[in-house]
């Protein structure tokens, strides 16, 4: 039985950078291929996270510009970001490089976003640019059983989520 299930899976290949070997994960043909969740890049300093809507700083803009190269072979069909400038600015180079459909969604309901992605992109690879507080909620909504903590100064996180029917997703955390 195990062998029959494996034969139904398609390979999913992502080259993340010239320095990384290809990452090969199986993706079942009956489900979401993969969701790539990225923390927004570095923002300009403010009085606090809730202080206005800060844009990316110079380092953040460079990180955002490098994102398309790292995800060039992922086959991204849609890119989601929150309404905040730092999220939209991180997503923009990826959107331009992939010609993916673009969605700006409210930051506060990761369960609804997950349901939307499952319904409208069931066979696609989707990228989501999130925040330190939304990424753990999104991973939980996808069924990841382990808690995830993201430090306020961590801007290099990328999570590859491959959903599996009837089981927890395969989740790989990478640094970009």
TrEMBL record:
Species assigned in the record: Salinarimonas soli
Molecular-function GO terms, alphabetical: phosphatase activity
InterPro entries, sorted: His_Pase_superF_clade-1 (IPR013078), His_PPase_superfam (IPR029033), PGM_Phosphatase (IPR050275)
Keyword annotations from UniProtKB, A to Z: Signal
Signal as UniProt keyword: yes
Cellular compartments per GO CC: cytoplasm
Pfam families xref list: His_Phos_1
Name the UniProt record assigns to this protein: Histidine phosphatase family protein
Signal sequence bounds: 1-31
């Amino acid at each position: 039985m195990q062998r029959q299930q494996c034969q139904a899976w398609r390979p999913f290949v992502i080259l993340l950078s010239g320095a990384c070997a290809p990452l090969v994960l199986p993706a079942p043909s009956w489900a979401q291929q993969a969701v790539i969740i990225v923390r927004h890049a570095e923002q300009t300093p403010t009085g606090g996270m809730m202080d206005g809507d800060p844009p990316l700083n110079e380092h953040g803009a460079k990180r955002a510009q490098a994102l398309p190269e790292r995800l060039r072979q992922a086959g991204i069909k849609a890119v989601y970001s929150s309404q905040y400038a730092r999220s939209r600015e991180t997503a923009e180079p990826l959107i331009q490089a992939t010609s993916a459909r673009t969605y700006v969604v409210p930051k506060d309901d990761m369960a609804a976003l997950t349901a939307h992605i499952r319904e409208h992109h069931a066979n696609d690879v989707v990228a989501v640019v999130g925040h330190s507080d939304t990424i753990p909620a999104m991973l939980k909504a996808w069924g990841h059983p382990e808690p995830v903590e993201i430090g306020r100064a961590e801007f290099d996180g990328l999570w590859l989520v491959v959903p599996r029917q009837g089981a927890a997703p395969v989740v790989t955390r990478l640094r970009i």
